[in-house]
């Protein structure tokens, strides 16, 4: 049995598509997609070819491999996961909050190990999290980002808190999920989204400070 069904499900989830939306792209019904994903039916070869061509994935990979997030997002055009280092940087496995997961992002605060991972060259040994950007994600007005971006956030330790001032960061807690800009006062750190929304932290408070490390934008 091929891996097409599993790969269709993974493609759909990474791209943030419902079964109906995925089916509409290829003139299929939601029932067709459900039957493929549940291994109750195999798509015809012409459907497999359409899916492979649409997402830019080799047909053989779609049929035989368990596709990785890197392959689905075409990151393998840039970085080869089998290579131990790129330009002196290690290929780290970073938990990825996909567009579909952003709607319930707060539920993953204590379950990062349940997220899919994306491999990316990183020099720092700190923890990272990647976020697939979507328009519904609250961001400051001066945060420039394209629709196809993957945002990488680095967890900053207490010795490096001084680097947060005026840096963009991620508020990721059980109650809040947004991108803001850090401001530092004498005894307090604030992550500000806008004039009406911010989160304050005491300097002595042990928390997770996620600082924007970089943006990957396909061009």
Beta fraction: 25-35%
Rg over CA atoms: 20 Å
Q: What's the SSE pattern? A: HHHHHHEEHEEEEEEEE
Shape estimate = elongated
Overall domain count: 2
Largest sheet: 10 strands, mixed
Per CATH, the architecture of the largest domain is Ribbon
Count, helices: 7
Q: What oligomeric state is this?
A: single chain
GO molecular function: DNA binding
InterPro entries: Cro/C1-type_HTH (IPR001387), Lambda_DNA-bd_dom_sf (IPR010982)
Domain HTH cro/C1-type: 8-62
Pfam family, one: HTH_3
Main attributes of the structure:
single chain, 219 residues, alpha+beta, 434 Repressor (Amino-terminal Domain), Umud Fragment, subunit A, 2 domains, ten-stranded mixed β-sheet, 10 strands, 23% helix, elongated, DNA-binding
Write a structural description.
- By secondary structure, this protein is α+β, with helices and mostly antiparallel strands.
- It has two domains: 3-74, 434 Repressor (Amino-terminal Domain) (Orthogonal Bundle), CATH 1.10.260.40; 92-217, Umud Fragment, subunit A, CATH 2.10.109.
- 23% of the residues lie in helices and 29% in strands.
- It contains seven helices and ten strands.
- It has helices at 4-14, 19-25, 30-37, 45-55, 59-64, 69-72, 99-102; strands at residues 85-86, 89-97, 117-122, 128-132, 150-156, 168-172, 177-184, 188-194, 197-202, 209-216.
- Strands 1, 2, 3, 4, 5, 6, 7, 8, 9 and 10 form a ten-stranded mixed sheet that branches.
- Strand 8 (188-194) and strand 9 (197-202) form a beta hairpin.
- Helix 1 (4-14) crosses helix 3 and helix 2 packs across helix 3.
- The chain is elongated, with a radius of gyration of 20 Å.
- The chain starts with a helix and ends with a strand.
- Residues 77-87 have low confidence and may be disordered.
